[in-house]
Write a structure and sequence with these properties.
It is a single chain. The chain is α/β, with parallel strands linked by helices and 194 residues long. 43% of the residues lie in helices and 12% in strands. It has helices at residues 3-18, 37-44, 57-69, 85-91, 111-124, 132-149, 153-160, and strands spanning 50-53, 75-78, 99-103, 166-168, 171-173, 185-189. Strand 1, helix 3 and strand 2 form a beta-alpha-beta unit. The two termini are 28 Å apart.
Length: 194
């Protein structure tokens, strides 16, 4: 129940319904929530084909563990945040079968991508995290926009809409006319706790 979750919910509902899907219920929880049993029971009682759970790793971990405790056996769908390794470490087999979307991984042979991965591993002695590359690119892109046009919000926004094929750690980035990043997505499914 924050801007991130509400935005994802709205886009998912609009897209799903345009494709002919039916939303049976919409329940929310606060960031930091530790008990989602009430929401799970309400939705499960409506006999949906699947439950979409946008959120952050701590709450999504709790949600899938509580669903398992309640013996709720439904298809769970989620977002990129579900790719966080902490979810599998904590949720273990409760995360089994969850399907989630992630941006298509960048080409590791790309010089910029490869350089970022190598330098990240050298500095932190581990692989980059789920959003390390996109966070890095976001900062570089904002600095680029400020250097091109100015530091006010409207100036930065105007410049970002002009950005085409920015070579970054997460691959090439371009914004569309709505300010959305144009990237291809793939789906992952947790199988055998991987």
């Amino acid at each position: 129940n924050n801007a991130y979750g509400t935005g994802l919910k709205t886009v998912f509902e609009d897209s799903f319904q345009k494709l002919g899907g039916k939303i049976l219920a919409s329940e929310s929880f606060e960031q930091g929530a530790t008990d989602m049993r009430s929401q799970l029971n309400k939705v499960y009682g409506l006999k949906p084909a699947a439950i979409y759970i946008p959120g952050y790793p701590p709450e999504m971990t709790i949600l899938v563990r509580q669903a398992k405790e309640l013996r709720i056996k439904l298809q769970f769908l989620s977002v990129q945040a579900f790719d966080d390794p902490k979810i599998l470490q904590t949720a273990k087999d409760a995360a089994e079968g969850v399907i989630f979307s992630v941006p298509k991984p960048p080409d590791s042979l790309d010089l910029v991508v490869n350089s970022f991965i190598t330098k990240y591993k050298q500095k932190f002695n581990r692989d980059p995290g789920v959003t390390s590359d996109t966070g890095y690119d976001a900062l570089k892109i904002i600095v680029w926009a400020m250097n091109q046009s100015g530091i006010s919000g409207p100036e930065i926004q105007h410049q970002l809409l002009k950005l085409k094929d920015f070579p970054g750690a997460a691959g090439v980035t371009t914004f569309d006319e709505n300010g959305d990043v144009i990237k291809k997505f793939v789906f992952k499914k947790i199988e055998n706790q991987q």
